[in-house]
Amino acid sequence: MKKGIHPKVFEASIVCVCGNKFTSSSTVPKIEVDICSHCHPLFTGQQKFLDRAGRIEKFQERYAKKTEPKNTKK
Per DSSP, what are the bridge partners of residue 30? Predict the structure, then answer.
């Protein structure tokens, strides 16, 4: 392998806006993030659906199972 082409690896301190701090390996010594696994809605279970112009209802109506039987010939 060539010498001098690989970047230095630091033990990076990662800080979230929510105040959560943890360490990892990175080529930069300090990383500031806006959202982490501690405050992300997917991991906290507080996920909210934003309904714009009734799109969720339209989807649910379109793909909902029909409870009425189809027209049968007698």
Answer: 13
